Amino acid sequence: MDRRQKRGTLISWDQQYRIGFIMPEGGTEALRIKGINLYPYTHAPQVGDILVYRMWKDSFTDMKVLVAEVDLGNPIKLISPFASDTSSYANEPLSWRIKLSIVACIAVFASILYVVMSSYQFAPENTNKPPEGLFPAGSEYYVGKRDLSDVVFSCDSRRQCLQMTSCQEATYFVQHCPGFEKLVGEMQCEKLWCK
Questions:
Q1: pTM (predicted TM-score)
Q2: How far is C-alpha 79 from the geometric centre of its chain's CA atoms?
Q3: Burial profile 129-144: b = 16 or more Cβ within 10 angstroms, e = fewer
Q4: Rounded to an integer, what distance in angstroms lies between the CA atom of residue 46 and that of residue 50?
């Protein structure tokens, strides 16, 4: 037995208020015990029960708490009331109520997500033109764009999309000129110049 654990006898017990007194072995002063700190809970305390007890002191509140267990011949392990003992719950399986609650929560969340996604309306395509100077001067997005439908294009020494001056020219170079770089970063050249 742990040296910090002591033995005593239950000399008084009030079942209504669940408070009793322990007389330590060889002691003269009785110790008060609350029912919440008397184990096992399945055993109804009786005057004359032999108890194994231990005193804990909370370092924050300077409060002393007495924890005791009725000696029924089983191994006694007194746990501090100030320490969270979660290890005893780690190996316990989840009850069917908890499992059912988890499944119900997942089903409700999935239903809400489905309703929100199915009723979501995508915004119409933005038809506003960007401010002048944001795109190259010949771009379809450019505010002061020119009509170049009558111009005839031909391949020349230019090889990059940013060297183009209009949507029509960029489209012609992409389709007809070998060695022309069709990408600006990851963007297609036509997307930069054309709508």
A1: 0.38
A2: 31
A3: eeeeeebbebbbbbee
A4: 9
